[in-house]
Amino acid sequence: MTQIDFYVHVENKLQTLTTLAAKALAKDVRMMILTPDAETTERVDKVLWSQPSIGFLPHCRAHHPLAAVTPIIVDHVAEPAVHEQVLVNLCPDCPSGFSRFERLIEIVSLDEADRSLARTRFRFYRDRGYEIRTHDLAS
């Protein structure tokens, strides 16, 4: 069953995302970052090219010819699934097909609208029997 982790009280979602992506890369874990739209995909793409400050986190889109050998996939299109290790959901809704991944990560900001949507996703997963771990990143 998919392991689900909620990172809550996050001040900067993109900063938390890059930290999690760097940890995954260091552990040789493949990550799919699902964004809600093309604009967010571009924003995440730019951040990953500039983080860490003296390097970058190798990534590409799901349809890129090197996707099969690239550790981080960033896209607003869920298919094709290039791997099934970690899915980071940046979308407001539960991603379809999330259960094929070993782990699902939800990053929840301090914004009340974002928190409300996250509570709905949390209930969705919980009501289907998924065990959920919560990581409180409040300062």
Summarize the structure.
With about 140 residues, the chain is of the alpha/beta class. It has a single domain, classed as DNA polymerase III subunit chi (Rossmann fold, 3-Layer(aba) Sandwich), CATH 3.40.50. It has three helices and seven strands, in the order E-H-E-H-E-E-E-E-H-E.
Written overview of the protein:
- The chain is of the alpha/beta class and 139 residues long.
- It has a single domain, classed as 3-Layer(aba) Sandwich (Rossmann fold).
- 31% of the residues lie in helices and 24% in strands.
- A 7-stranded parallel β-sheet has the order 3-4-2-5-6-1-7, sandwiched between helices.
- The longest helix has 16 residues, at 112-127.
Q: Distance between the terminal alpha carbons, to the nearest Å?
A: 31 Å
Taking all Cα atoms into account, the compactness measure Rg is: 14 Å
The biggest beta sheet is recorded as: 7 strands, parallel
Strand order of the largest sheet: 3-4-2-5-6-1-7
CATH architecture: 3-Layer(aba) Sandwich
What would the average pLDDT be, to the nearest integer?
A: 94
The number of helical runs is: 3
Using the coordinates above, name the CATH class. Alpha Beta
Tally of separate domains: 1
- Poorly predicted ranges: none
Helix content range = 25-40%
Assembly state (oligomeric): single chain
Give the H and E element order. Answer: EHEHEEEEHE
Structural class: alpha/beta
